[in-house]
Structure formats: C-alpha cells, structure tokens
Amino acid sequence: MAKLVECIPNFSEGSDQKIIDGLVTTAKSVGGVTLLDYSSDSSHNRSVFTLVGDENSIQEVAFQLVKYASEHIDMTKQKGEHPRMGATDVVPFVPIKDITTEECVEISKKVAKRINDELNIPIFLYEESASTPNRVNLARVRKGQFEGMPEKLQEEEWAPDFGERKIHPTAGVTAVGARMPLVAFNVNLDTDDITIANNIAKIVRGSSGGFKYCKGIGVMLEDRNIAQVSMNMVNFEGTPLYRVVETIRFEAKRYGVNIIGTEVIGLTPAKALIDCAEYYLQVEDFDYGKQVLENHLLN
After folding, report:
1. Which among 214, 221, 209 is positioned nearest to 182, based on CA atoms?
2. 82 noted as active-site residue
3. 184-207, pLDDT tens digit by residue?
C-alpha cells in the first residue's frame, strides 16, 4: 500500500490571480500528487493549497511550489492582514495513510534542506520537526514577520535551522515541519471594530490563557468591512469547534456584537464537523464509527 502524505503550503498572495493560477499549474505539474483544494483571500492576502501524494512526489511538488513563489512573490511589496514572514510562509507535512509522523519529520527536513541549498531561503523547522522547544509554535517562529526577520535572525536563539542569518531579499523566510491535521476556522462578527475581534481572540487562544489547542488573531476583512476572529484549531478533539464558537458568541455579546457566519479554510477532517452536528442537534448515544455512512463505504 502506497504511503500518503498531505502537504498544505501557505503562500503570501491572495489577490493576484495570475500568480495564483501559476501556483495551481505548478501544483498539478508533478505526477503522483493530487491537488485536493486551494483557496485565496484578498483581505488576508494569502492562499492555502492542500495536496496529497506519495512520499517522494509530495517532496518534489512542495519544492517546486516554493520555487515558483520565490520567483513571483515579492515580500518587500506584500501587505495583508495575516501574519507572514515569507513568500511561502509555511510548508507542513501531515501523515495520512501508512506513514508515521516521524517519517513526515524526515520528509520535512529533506525539503527544508533542498529549499535552502537551491533557493537560498533560510528555513525554520517547526511543530514536530522543531529543533528546540521554542520553535514548536509557528506564531512564535513567525513573530516579527518579514519586516522584523533581519534583526530576529541575529538573535542568539534564532539562527535558522538551514541557511545563514539573513533573509532572502524578496522571498523572506519559510517554516517547514510535520504536524497532525488542524482546522483553519474563522468566525465573522457584525462589527467593523477590529479591537473587539482582537479582544475575543485573546480570550480564546491558548497562548493567552484560553483554549489549549486554539491559535487565534483578530483580522479586518476590508472587502466586507467586518472584523473576524481567525483561528487554527490544532487539535479539534481536544478543543472542538463548537466550544470555541459558543465562547466567541458569549464574549461578543458584551459588546453588543453577533456572529454572522463562520468559515472553514481548506480541507478539514469530517469528524470535526460531525462533532459539531452531534452537539447542536443534541444527538444521544451517537457512534461516529458505526453511524456515519461514509465510514462504512471507505473502509
């Protein structure tokens, strides 16, 4: 049985359709890889691709995508709501079938080395691939963003895992690592006050005392003139989506603000959504393994 690995590279471009189309073409250019999904957002100025393939093909497509991004995205001109430090901001590898997290860590290191060797982009290893504890959390690695990276790389504890202590002049710095599946999940509010979204994000994210498996920031969606709590749920079983939604709903009420919608970015494990359905429908004695039709069809 072929080993299957998922790769979800994030690019710092969400507006220029020509560049996005080029990324799509590149993603489809490597045999043994399937582009499952991609989404772009102009407010975040970010595109997220989801690919799956065998362990060798997924390494090749990841490198080719980073190469294309480095040639077409100029970080000295890039602006957007989402934190970022490179043209390709992050390249995570996720074990899907018949492959371990440890094997994905080795894949991430091979890709990271090749990116630096051939493209001269410095690399931080993060999550399961992290070389030190302070590099596990992507938000900590990315702190300072593109503009602050030249100074950050000179700090004693922030030498890149691959590369010299200087950024690529236009492509910046990239984080590469292995991790378990996460859910990119956003909650939209009926307010144009970004301060409210920031306050709520601080309450729900784990780093400031909220939910352990939630990372969150407030962003402004300029095209809709609304504020958003933008999150990564790194363990949807440890912190279910519905629990975060209800907490945000509760906290928003103090400002007279309501939730007007939510977004799932990219692909998500089915169980993350089914857990929400079970909660909101108040289903009793539900058995995910036995009562979901697709589970029987796919096994």
Report:
1. 214
2. yes
3. 999 999 999 999 999 999 999 999
